[in-house]
Amino acid sequence: MNNENEQQLMREMLEKTTTIAVIGLSDKSYRTSYQIAKAMQNEGYRIIPVNPNVEEVLGEKAYEKIEDVKEPFELINIFRRSIYLKDLSNEIVNTDADYVWMQQGVTDNEVYDYLTKHNKQVIMDQCIKVAHAVIMK
């Protein structure tokens, strides 16, 4: 995907999303996932934490797996190491979310191809908070 198309897709994702399910969201305020999710919450997005090790983050009930989330969400933001993407992708394709956003440093070209073949629009290796600050200003 060229840079212009990627920018356009990021804008679409940010404009059409009201709720973000965050896989790997920590309840520790010093963690990057927490800081970025909190910033996105402050921008008006609802955050749904997906992490089997926490009960609640940012005032929202946490879910063990993405497939456990029954309420609607448009975007899945991934804060897990790349080695976990293949397993996660099998769960992600079973959701109604149109968008998958892998944070900076999270990449797997096979998973990207798999998700796009299953009608997911994917951004890989980008920080959603930085993109929001640049694109939605």
Keywords:
CoA-bd, alpha/beta, two-stranded antiparallel sheet, 5 helices, 5-stranded parallel β-sheet, Rossmann fold, 137 residues, 36% helix
Question: What's the helix and strand layout?
Answer:
Elements: H1 3-16, E1 19-23, H2 32-42, E2 46-50, E3 56-57, E4 60-61, E5 75-78, H3 85-92, E6 99-102, H4 109-117, E7 121-123, H5 128-135
Parallel strand pairs: 1-2, 1-5, 5-6, 6-7
Antiparallel strand pairs: 3-4
Question: Which CATH class applies here?
Answer: Alpha Beta
User: Which structural class should the secondary elements be placed in?
Assistant: alpha/beta
* Helical percentage: 25-40%
Q: Could you report the average pLDDT, rounded to the nearest whole number?
A: 96
Q: In what order do the strands lie side by side in the largest sheet? A: 2-1-5-6-7
CATH superfamily, called what?
NAD(P)-binding Rossmann-like Domain
Shape: globular
Domain CoA-binding: 13-106
Word description of this protein:
The protein has 137 residues and is an alpha/beta fold. The chain has one domain: 3-Layer(aba) Sandwich (Rossmann fold). Helix content is 36%, strand content 18%. It contains five helices and seven strands, in the order αβαββββαβαβα. The protein has helices at 3-16, 32-42, 85-92, 109-117, 128-135; strands spanning 19-23, 46-50, 56-57, 60-61, 75-78, 99-102, 121-123. Strands 2-1-5-6-7 form a five-stranded parallel β-sheet, with helices on both faces. Strand 3 (56-57) and strand 4 form a beta hairpin. Helix 1 (3-16) crosses helix 5 (128-135) and helix 3 runs parallel beside helix 4. The protein is globular, with a radius of gyration of 14 Å. The protein starts with a helix and ends with a helix. The model has no long low-confidence stretch (mean pLDDT 96).
